[in-house]
Amino acid sequence: MTEVTVKHLWKEFDDQVVLENVNLHVGDHEFVTIVGASGCGKTTFLKMLLGIESPSRGTFLIDGKPLSDEPGPDRGIVFQRYSLFPHLTVMKNLMLGLELRDSRVFGRLFGAARRRAVERARELLEAIGLQAAADKYPAQLSGGMQQRLSIAQSVICEPKILLLDEPFGALDPGITSDMHTLILKLWNMNKMTIFMVTHDLKESFALGTRLLVFDKVRVDPQSPEAFGATITFNIPLKGHRSSP
Ligand SMILES: Nc1ncnc2c1ncn2[C@@H]1O[C@H](COP(=O)(O)OP(=O)(O)OP(=O)(O)O)[C@@H](O)[C@H]1O
Ligand SMILES: [Mg+2]
Prior knowledge:
Blueprint: E1 4-13, E2 16-26, E3 31-36, H1 42-50, E4 57-62, E5 65-66, E6 75-78, H2 90-102, H3 111-127, H4 143-155, E7 161-165, H5 173-190, E8 193-197, H6 201-207, E9 210-216, E10 229-236
Parallel strand pairs: 3-8, 3-9, 6-7, 7-8
Antiparallel strand pairs: 1-2, 1-4, 4-5, 9-10
Helix pairs in contact: 2-3, 2-4, 4-5
Adenosine-5'-triphosphate is lined by residues 13, 18, 36, 38-44.
């Protein structure tokens, strides 16, 4: 069960108001898609949810509890550009998340814990269709394969919340429908809550259970940074909960 509540959230950078009075409630296992003009604060919103940026005022609650100050394994993120380690193989890139989480002291897993981790990584490699590429390096993969691996790297720790910041923006349009199938499969396998920023409204309707539009409700032409964006539309979308 994961519920996310945002109350009277403001974010300012010096004199610039980026977000103002954002309020939101998201129920368990939702797929939230976010659209809005460039620079309106979408990435900043995700960073606050991840815990790497803090609100100026207001709160984020997960299951009624305030967010901890540090990003934890309960939240994962995938950015538009790949986050893979070039000197590690596909398998090792995938295992890294688990190793960092489970063995803070040694940095490596041994025995039964390692066998479980390898098994989990193999399952995920199969889910993302990269089982034949386990021993390759990121540079030997296509852009789409690299992004599938980045997503799997975030999902392997079974985060309750997955944050996707235009994850398919750098990919050929031809492969986005495969990526959509994959992300819906992982969303259903892990029962997580997803927040995904996209600039493609069609993509929001195809994937989301809820669409958020970020926009400014007040604008001062003399002082463009005086007011921030907020959620101007919060639209429940019906759809594909049971598929695929
Ligand atoms: N660390 C920072 N310090 C100062 N200003 C920042 C910082 N991070 C973001 N900003 C500013 O906050 C505003 C919102 O940035 P953000 O990256 O959240 O926008 P965005 O909606 O994700 O835009 P895009 O669609 O182009 O990715 C921008 O004006 C940006 O310059
Ligand atoms: Mg952004």
